[in-house]
Structure formats: C-alpha cells, structure tokens
Design brief:
Layout lengths: L1 E5 L7 H15 L14 E8 L8 E7 L1 E3 L14 E3 H23 L1 H6 L6 E3 L6 E2 L2 E2 L8 E3 L3 E7 L10 E2 L2 H5 L13 H5 L2 E2 L4 E3 L6 E2 L14 E2 L12 H11 L3 H5 L8 E7 L13
Parallel strand pairs: 10-16
Antiparallel strand pairs: 1-16, 2-3, 2-10, 4-5, 6-9, 7-8, 11-12, 13-14, 13-15
Length: 289
C-alpha cells in the first residue's frame, strides 16, 4: 500500500511512478553492498519531474539504504564519523551532492547559455548582482545567484514509514475488526498500541531532562504525534533526531543545507512524499501542509 502527499495538483499516478522509478533504479545496481535474502534494510530515494518533459517518468537522482546510527558516546567532535546512516538521511546527502554537480554544470555553461537552454541544469541563474566570471562564481556575496528552475519538482520515496511521528498511524477500522491487527509484528514497546489498532514508533521523546530522551510512552495505548523524538535503536542511545523530524526541517529550511543556501536563492523543498505503508495502515497516512 502507498501513502502519499503531493503538492501542486500532481496526478494521482505520481506516487506509483516515483516508487517504480526508485525501486527500478535500486534493482539495476550491482549486488555489492545490498542485503542478502535473509537480511533487511530500508530504502529511500529522490526523483525529479520537469515540466519541460511532462511525459517523461521521474528521474532518480539519489538513493540511500540503511537503518543504523551511532550512539551518542561514539559521535566524533571533529565530524570524521557519520552519525546517522538511516536511508532517508543518506539519500538526502546524495541529493545534496547531486545539487553541487548541477551547480557546476550551470557555472560551466555560463549565464547566457543557461538562460537560452534551461535543460543545462536543474538550476537557473538569478538576475541579481552575482555573476559567473571566467567559469567561477563572482565574489560578490550580496545575494545568492541561482534558484531551482520553475517546473522542476523533487519527489521522495521511502520503503517504510520514517522513524518518529510518521510511524504513528491508526489501522483501518475494517482491518481492526477482522483480526488482521494480530498479524502485525509487535515488540515489547509496541504491543499495547498494536493491539489497539495503532502504529507506533520506538523513537523516544526528546526532553530537557538529563540524557535527553524518555520512555514516557512505554505501555500507552496510543502515541500522539507532534513531539520531537530521537531515533529508536537497540544499542546505546543516540543523539540523532528521528527521520520524521529531519524531514520536517528539510521542508521548512530546504533540502540544500546551510552551505548551499549561500548560493541557492530559495529553499529546495519536497513536492511529494511516497511511503510504502504496511498492510492495515491508515490510507493517506502521510499528511501534507
């Protein structure tokens, strides 16, 4: 089942097209690094659509797999260790690298050619005080000098509900009454919630107390969304925020990150999110704003 939220009047077939594109791209990759038949991982990807080619399928530009993150005691102050290796975070890091490559293409093409041929890059030059001089960005830092080209939209696919708030959902009433909830895989944390027909998250509430997180929701019948949470895990407690919280930040501030914000005029936001939802999960479980 797919749960999706889209903006800008996207066609209803878009979630399936994005999912097919990401899954096909992943399947086309070599087997090296992929989980074996007895192993499991999470997959996330970003795909682009472009109004200049409305009949073309979404183009996958970034993929990531993973479910691990470092405990707080193993984080490297010098930034030499990757703290968060969840699929969504790795895919977004790959997307940022793709954006750098696209800006390089824009610089190499030059302002005039980029304006004449928009397909040179997903970015376009802004008519501002910044210019491209001799293949390099001018040193005038008064304003960013490029922006995402109109008509280019970024779509995200995730093979399971992102940890945190996005993993909290109600089961459909019809499923709750026919006993299918008993088929859900439950653990000690989620047992009560699953029996009551609700999806739950193992991500811990973020508090100001020592240690930073709490298991205050353990054993509750229903978890409530709208709270900041740390990533779940069986090992040492991590200080990484949940993927739901990070995705919320990305869409508020932009996927491009702080460094590229000095170059890209407007935040690059997600146009749609497609999630492979578990059977029995509420339809349309991903809410949009």
């Amino acid at each position: 089942a797919m749960a999706s939220t889209a903006r800008g009047g996207e066609p209803s077939s878009l979630p399936a097209a994005v999912a097919d594109a990401v899954l096909s791209k992943y399947a086309s990759l070599p087997k090296n690094g992929k989980p074996q038949t007895h192993e499991y991982t999470s997959l996330a990807g970003f795909a682009l659509t472009d109004d200049l080619t409305p009949d073309a399928p979404p183009v996958v530009v970034a993929l990531g797999t993973g479910t691990k993150c470092l405990g707080a005691d193993r984080r490297c102050p010098e930034g030499l260790a990757l703290a968060d290796s969840h699929a969504e975070v790795l895919a977004r890091r790959a997307l940022v690298l793709y954006m750098y490559d696209e800006i390089d293409r824009l610089v190499a093409a030059g302002r005039t050619r980029a304006l004449e041929n928009p397909r040179v890059s997903i970015f376009r030059p802004e008519r501002s005080e910044k210019t491209i001089v001799g293949g390099a960005i001018a040193r005038d830092r008064t304003r960013p000098w490029c922006s995402l080209r109109p008509g280019v939209r970024v779509h995200m696919y995730v093979s399971q509900s992102p940890c945190g708030d996005a993993s909290i959902y109600r089961a459909r009433t019809s499923d709750a009454t026919n006993g299918s909830i008993a088929n859900l895989r439950v653990n000690k944390r989620a047992k009560t919630a699953a029996n009551l027909g609700a999806g739950s998250t193992g991500a811990k509430l973020l508090t100001g107390a020592p240690g930073g997180a709490t298991d205050a929701e353990f054993g509750v019948g229903e978890q409530r969304p709208g709270a900041a949470r740390l990533k779940p895990g069986r090992g040492a407690q991590t200080s990484c925020m949940s993927c739901s919280d990070k995705m919320c930040k990305w869409n508020a501030l932009g996927l491009q990150g702080e460094l590229l914000s000095s170059v890209v005029e407007f935040p690059v936001r997600i146009s749609s999110v497609t999630v492979a939802a578990p059977e029995g999960g509420a339809e349309g479980g991903a809410e949009g704003g």
